[in-house]
Amino acid sequence: MSVLHIKSGLYTDHYELTMAQGYFLTGKKNTRANFDYFFRKNPYEGGFVVYAGLDNLLEAIHNYRFRKEDCRYLESTGFNNKFIEYLKSFRFTGNVFSVTEGEIVFANEPVLRVEGNIIETQLVESMILNVLNFQSLIATKAARIRLAAGDRLLIDFGLRRAQGLGAIHASRAAIIGGFDGSSNTYSARIFGFVSTGTMAHSWVQSYNREIDAFREFVRLYPDSSILLVDTYDTIKHGVPNAITVAKELEKNGHKLTGIRLDSGDLAYMSKESRRMLNQAGLEYVKIVVSNQLDEHLIKSLLDQEAPIDSFGVGTALVTGKDEGALDGVYKLTHVDDKPSMKVSENITKTTLPGLKKIFRFVDNDNEFYADGIELENTAVPEIIFHPYHPEKNCRLKGYSHEAIIEKVMDNGKVLKGRSLDESAKYAADRLAQLPAESKRFDNPHIYKVGIGKELMDLRNNLKEKIWKR
After folding, report:
1. Nearest CA to 7 among 92, 74, 96?
2. For a Cys-Cys bond, which of 153, 342, 366, 387 suits 310, CB 3.0-4.6 Å?
3. Measured between alpha carbons, how far is 340 from 321 in angstroms, rounded to an integer?
4. Quick one: DSSP state of residue 292?
5. H/E element, 117
6. Long-range contacts from 3-7, C-beta under 8 angstroms, 24+ separation
7. Host H or E run for residue 268
8. What span, in angstroms and rounded, lies between the C-alpha atoms of 221 and 203?
9. Alpha-carbon torsion angle 163, 168, 172, 178, nearest 10
């Protein structure tokens, strides 16, 4: 079974199956239900999230099946035979509504909605959370690194440091977030982007002399060589040897692509390397750096005017360091044709009921101004209220708007897909519309997300009814 095309119905948590069996045995299998996916906090103490993973998720939902081996396993764990017979012909036949992959989204927005019978909408919960939480986390990290790096080349080097097979989707999410390529050749083949790489210290160490290692490498790859110059002594030997080989290449009608620095004081080393290369007339040779980079270190290097052309980022990118996970949740909002909500003494855990849509409001400079969440069949709100502090509100009259939720799956069939390049371009375009104060790393501006009056009234009235039960 392909790790990227999981078609097993066992791609879920056990309690989803327990509840699904309960719905089946109590005659509730045809009860209509709607669930919302949202997250409660922007990661990295940042101001936004890049929404990623939708294309993979829709494919997984479309292919969700209980095959013979799945059913045999469930039978061995004690599930009811009649329920297992039902699962043998199970297909997801519901609808999915979502923002576009690559959209810039914010905490507490219902960015995906699933509607269908209560069994199918329940069974896909774990899969939704697994895919969207992880890819959105990594795409957001990638976007932050892109903001720090400007237009310099960014390559994902994270395969060897990722949490197992998570590296495969991490590389995809990195592209959506703004990376140019990856060292991960498997992901590149599956998802259709460029894989690239340089050399390891072991190549240099396998030769008696560093310069011989360089000469042999450029002989094999005369038009695409990037030489790793820090195996022994970067300034005394590595860069001078690279210069010698570059000059030899020139005599044969080729050009050295670049050098890579993977240790030491990268600001100093890059400046000194650039000086030496330029003195030798090798202004065209690029400088690539790697070694435990993240958005903060990259920003620091560029603030020091380090002459770096490209960054290879690994661990911090594919592990989502220092966040670890996006806290996305999946909550029931409508059941049996009635709005539903979870109520908590902690107001931030109280959910928004009913079928909803999101409007994005844009100012005269075409920058995002605010997002308004309102019930599906109501007018565009002219005022939105803070979800937990309604005394805080925002008037929207005069701002242009767009609805950012659309139907992406109809009766289990994917309506339209996007290429990875399209999602990446969309993310870059939308990130450009986000005000700078919401993109800064330190104390970012909190983007305005509010609820309309109709939704606020429904939530308050329903909460009061629940407390009176």
Report:
1. 92
2. 153
3. 36
4. S
5. strand 112-117
6. 3/165, 3/168, 4/56, 4/168, 4/169, 4/190, 5/59, 5/60, 5/63, 6/60, 6/63, 7/60, 7/63, 7/64, 7/65, 7/67
7. helix 266-279
8. 14
9. 40
Amino acid residing at 68? K
Of 345, 336, 375, the C-alpha closest to 110 is 375
> Rounded to whole angstroms, how far apart are CA atoms 35 and 9?
19
Q: What pLDDT is stored for residue 4 in this prediction? A: 56
Tell me which H or E stretch contains 60. Answer: helix 54-62
CA distances from 157 to 124, 167, 174, 181, 294 (A): 32, 10, 11, 9, 12
- 168-181 core/surface letters (b: 16 or more CB in 10 A; e: else): bbbbbbbbbbbbbb
Can you read off the two tokens belonging to residue 433?
Answer: 């519309």
Distance CA 1, CA 398 (A): 54
- pLDDT at position 1: 36
How many angstroms separate the CA atoms of 372 and 384, rounded?
Answer: 6
Give the β-pairing of 406-410 and 413-414.
antiparallel
| Closest C-alpha among 116, 127, 69 to residue 92 | 116
What does residue 172 show for φ and ψ, rounded to 5 degrees?
A: -60, -45
CB-based contacts of 79-84 (< 8 A; 24+ apart in sequence): 79/17, 79/21, 80/21, 80/24, 80/25, 82/24, 82/25, 83/20, 83/21, 83/24, 83/25
Rounded Cα gap, residues 407 and 355, in angstroms: 13
Q: d(Cα 336, Cα 170) in Å, to the nearest integer? A: 38
Does residue 125 contact residue 12 with C-beta atoms inside 8 Å? yes
DSSP string, 384-451: EE-SS-TTSEEE-TT-EEEE--EEEEETTEE-----HHHHHHHHHHHHHHS-GGGT-SSS----EEEE
Are the beta carbons of 372 and 361 closer than 8 angstroms? yes
What are the helix and strand counts (H, E) for the chain? 16, 21
Tokens of 13: 């948590």
Q: Is 116 helix (H, G, I), strand (E, B) or coil?
A: strand
Q: What residue has token string 């909190």? A: 446
- Residue carrying the six token digits 């240099």: 204
Please count the CA atoms within 13 angstroms of the CA of 272 that sit on its side-chain side: 16
CB atoms within 10 A of CB 447: 20
Distance CA(117)–CA(106), nearest Å, equals 28
Averaged pLDDT in 10-residue chunks for the chain of 469 residues: 67 97 98 98 98 96 95 97 98 98 98 98 98 98 98 97 95 98 96 94 98 98 98 98 98 98 97 98 98 97 98 98 95 97 87 98 97 96 94 95 97 93 98 98 96 96 86
